[in-house]
Design brief:
The structure is a homodimer. The first copy, chain A, is α/β, with parallel strands linked by helices. Chain A contains 12 helices and 12 strands. Chain A binds a DNA duplex through helix 2 and helix 4.
Chain lengths: ~325, ~325
DNA sequence: TTGAAAGCGTTACCAT
DNA sequence: ATGGTAACGCTTTCAA
């Protein structure tokens, strides 16, 4: 077996208890013995057995993070934000990717719960009922990030309603009146529903009645973007389209160009998310940028400060980042 | 505290030992009592405390995975492959993102080692000396994936030398004689060195003496791709460039187009990696595709079968995937 | 300042 | 087929 505090205690002529106190800088001890202990620990190549410590302390500082395997790259940003704060506040992150296969999901979450994590962060997860029940059964603190599940779980996300207003306002100001929404046509996930409603409300606020045919596609995939152009045909019936995820917008852009359209002249695009992907296209995409790192940060810090009540909703900022994918009708 | 096997034992009128055996399907017991135990466990909402089990068994089935925070998206593919096999073979993955800050790295790895993982997979990591020493000190099985560190750690990766031959051969066959290599100009990481050498050797095999000026850039970033075009100016002195990572190739493509060049007519590009990104560009990039999922799979399966000797090297296949970014001089 | 000992939840050996 | 019990490594209370 590996080195334990007992080994150190023996070598130092002390008791395990003293070694434990010294190594954790907890309780009283003399600087002299502390120095000796640290030296011995170092020389022996000691590593604490955190599992044993957790067991003894009946609690852990491990936070489980559930990430969908088919995650868009914004998940990485959220994790980055978490990682940073976890380091500061001395938490450990147990990042777990979950499959779409429900049976695997269950097993994965089971093993997470077996680790006695003290909170679980769900990244952009639409929990199927079975998983959800499992999670509720266990008494761990849950936090939903970048998605909304129900009002029993605290939420950290962008204000999707506001976001749609920002986009529609931007397009309206540039002279657009015919605006499509691609990728949020369904009622689930709830985020899609909210965006859809925000889009409709924002149009209404400008005196525009929305055209239900122009809310199209429900998956956040590249293919959805491609298919959309195919579906509407050329010339397109609208002047602008909102892509409900960066990858959708890239699909829209490519398909439009492949169909001989010029972006932004024949089609303007505003993308939702604002990850690095939007900077890689030509033209560069105008986007509404979400603050994913902040979401990750807030998840941990608010957990730490225990400010997460059951139905808490924490919004992070969103802002329009200009690219070259929106035509300005005012200049013509 | 939460429910334990003791609670179940009490309620079932059994000993903890029996409950343990039943729940782990280990040893002998009657189907009847088993059924009862399972029912009670279910009704009580029992979750195994895996930390306690690990402690008792003096071993864990947890595999730590070190991923650079600035990871290219191929890391996701590798993880996906691992995840799949981990599920099959009943291992747990402890995925940890590591920072570039050395102090944070150390702390992160310390906490990994404190979890008594029984192996650590390093994804595309160029371990700085301090980290490396730490890792060596602990007696865990190390595996380097998609990178080469030294010959004391088993490696799972593409055959980078062969890969460069495949690319050069492809370009040569299409009539290219002036070929640049962007993004592998340095001696570290070792992968860069191997690619550089493979490139030189492959050219030599075709009777071409390489031009040292055409090996340029060392970071795997978008900016490197952009800068390369700027650096060489137009018209470019070569007809083809190999981007040593997809993101570099996208940079090359965009910068070339921004400079008024037409790809592939004025510049042909072959990208190394072949992730989804190469499908999102116009024209679509011709790439050499690495089998990242297989790397993840092999990491776990070979670990499981204990076939990893100290200096083992396992290569996964690479193959050219045709896009529209390579000009064929034979057709003119 | 330090030590002894109980206990965390599980497993495995040895009995029964 | 089932039970008793020691052991895993660490923390913590209480006593010295």
């Amino acid at each position: 077996m590996a080195i334990t505090i007992k080994d150190i205690a023996n070598k130092a002529g002390l008791s395990p208890a003293s070694v434990s106190r010294i190594l954790n800088n907890h309780g009283r001890f003399s600087a002299e013995t502390a120095k000796k202990v640290h030296e011995i620990a170092e020389s022996l190549g000691y590593f604490k057995n955190q599992s044993a410590a957790d067991l003894s302390q009946k609690q852990s500082r491990v936070v489980g993070v559930l990430v969908p395997v088919a995650h868009t790259n914004f998940a990485d940003e959220i994790i980055k934000g978490m990682q940073h704060t976890a380091y500061e506040l001395n938490y450990e992150l147990l990042i777990t990717f979950i499959d779409t296969d429900e049976k695997k999901q269950i097993q994965t979450v089971q093993s997470l719960l077996s680790r006695k994590v003290f909170a679980i962060f769900m990244l952009a997860i639409d929990a199927p009922t079975a998983l959800f029940e499992l999670l509720n059964h266990a008494n761990v603190q849950l936090v939903s990030i970048s998605n909304q599940l129900n009002n029993k779980i605290p939420i950290i996300s962008s204000n999707n309603d506001l976001m749609m207003h920002q986009i529609v306002d931007h397009l309206y100001q540039k002279g657009h009146r015919k605006i499509a929404l691609i990728g949020s046509s369904e009622r689930y996930p709830i985020v899609a529903k909210i965006r859809r409603k925000g889009y409709i409300d924002a149009l209404a606020a400008k005196g525009i009645t929305y055209n239900p045919d122009w809310i199209w596609g429900f998956q956040n995939t590249y293919q959805t973007g491609l298919d959309a152009i195919q579906h509407f045909g050329t010339p397109l019936p609208f002047t602008a389209a909102i892509g409900s995820a960066d990858i959708i917008s890239v699909g829209l852009l490519n398909a439009a160009q492949d169909a001989g359209l010029v972006v932004p002249n024949d089609l303007s695009i505003v993308s939702v998310d604002g990850t690095e992907l939007t900077q890689l296209t030509r033209p560069i995409l105008t986007t509404i940028e979400q603050d994913f790192q902040m979401m990750g940060h807030l998840a941990l810090s608010s957990l730490h400060e225990k400010t997460l009540t059951e139905n808490a909703i924490i919004y992070t900022d969103t802002k329009i980042v200009l690219g070259d994918s929106v035509r300005d009708f005012n200049n013509y």
